[in-house]
Structures
1.
Amino acid sequence: MKKIVTILGARPQFVKAAVLSRVIQKYNEIEEVIIHTGQHYDQNMSDIFFEEMQIPKPKYNLQINGLRHGAMTGQMLEKIEEILVEEKPDIVVIYGDTNSTLAGALAAKKLHIKVVHIEAGLRSFNMKMPEEINRIMTDRISDLLLCPTDAAVENLKNEGFENMDVIFEKSGDIMKDAVEYYSTLSEEKSSVVEDLDLEKGNFVLATIHRQENTDDIEKLKEIFKSLEEINSKCEVVIPLHPRTKKILAEHDLMFQMTAIEPVGYFDMLELLKNCKMVLTDSGGLQKEAFFNQKPCIIAREETEWTELVSNGFAKLVGSDLEKILTAFYDFSEENLDFSMNLFGENVGETIYQSILKL
Ligand code: UD1
């Protein structure tokens, strides 16, 4: 029986890993051991995802969090290496672009364990983003690179991956499976729309947490001013990431809108289904908006999901108040057709089969 070690640590990774773990359990021909680095640790940033999505309990929780990038990644590397030496897996699976991703890839590669990177090939071409550095480094040392989109495959070709002894292919986007599978459950289990007394189809769902926005207080203020302005026309609901909440509090900043604690996956799906549009700087939420047929305003200067912008489903506005408001008004008028298939089908199964062949 093949043995896989899955390494995860941050919220979006729980969502992605849930899909593959379910397929692994269905076939029962691979043993999966999960390491949670502890990067995200609050009940509503971590535990709730394991409960709702029925992700197998991690065998290890490293409880490494709240540190600067170097210390965080370094401590993870050290602990993960120890565990991999003990567990001796055939394969290590990592997701996305966080510090947990990079630490996992590096530890495995140096022990000559095969590395599978799910969500490979994405690029923002902004080397100031910690996530971009993590992506590039992780891709370079992975053995099987599973790309969510055609653009991601193209990025790897442009970087010369065809000349390397690795496999890279389009698998589709694993988050699509998560939305499809958990949507029926969320309808039964979540009452967030009623609890917040939201008018269905008439509120904006927002999330802001990216370091490039939170670390520049002027940018952050501008984004929140824009949200406040939108809120005067159409209610804005914003589950606040702990980093954003902390920075707003430190600067004594308060804005008029519905700010709530981070929500679990079921609540998020229901908010997505019932909102009018999404405004975010998150990577995952841009696609989740698309899967739920909602337009998305991206509060960043660039995106890894270029196909959303080029096909008119999302608008890139940075932190500029005028641009944000214009995007809001434009999307309020538009009637978009979301039937385009940009992110593949049956992605969990496809990824599973590729891993089996490795
Ligand atoms: C990380 C990822 C980012 C991903 C995001 C999803 C990196 C470099 N970035 O950013 O790619 O989009 O996760 O949310 O890995 N905190 C809490 N409670 C928690 C989690 C975090 O209070 O449960 C605090 C941390 O202590 C820290 C801050 O929030 O002060 C930010 O957390 P951190 O893990 O540094 O990165 P994220 O911004 O979440």
2.
Amino acid sequence: MVNNQLSTTLQAIQDYAVAYHVPIMENQGIGELIELLKVQQPEKILEIGAAIGFSAIKMTEALPTSTVDTVERDDSRYQKALEFIAQSGFGERIRIFHADALELSLDVLKPEYDAIFIDAAKGQYERFFDKYEALLAKGGIIYCDNMAMHGLSDIPLSEVPRRKRTMIRNLATFKEHMLNDPRYDTELLSSGDGIMICRKK
Ligand code: SAH
Ligand code: MG
């Protein structure tokens, strides 16, 4: 019964994402993220960028004893996420905050998270990281999606559409910083759209 309700919800989310062009994770990316989380077994997860709740629900499904806090700034996506989370049956384990993650007060969140998943505005990753690493437990992991920017991070900047250049430049700088940050063990995976894993030493 519960499983049925869950798979119906996940299908409805995927259909909605296609119909309304919501960039939720694709199968390979979410599959890889979930494998990594199953190894890590984080108890508390924080997500930046809920969209309509897909990845939050998938993480909650994969980790039966974990809780997920997630943040979404867009009004209609937030409303849809609320509906889908309620429908999924995971309302008790997922909290969603309607806010710009760069403005949200850390006080409303938990004091510590074992895993933080960054999947919001790509040009702002470093700012999300710098703000939310304050909540990362020792030995905790920050995962970042879309590090490959659908191939744009691999081509010369002059060939990247102008309006995307700042975002690509910011992402490249952030990647460099993380690879050189002695406080973290950082690894880049090519799965999905590129996942960066930063493990706090
Ligand atoms: N993690 C989701 C997909 C997220 S798409 C999934 O795979 O199911 C990225 C989302 O981040 C968008 O819905 C966008 O509105 C949101 N976002 C972008 N910048 C944000 C910010 N500063 N604060 C909160 N949400 C943000
Ligand atoms: Mg993404």
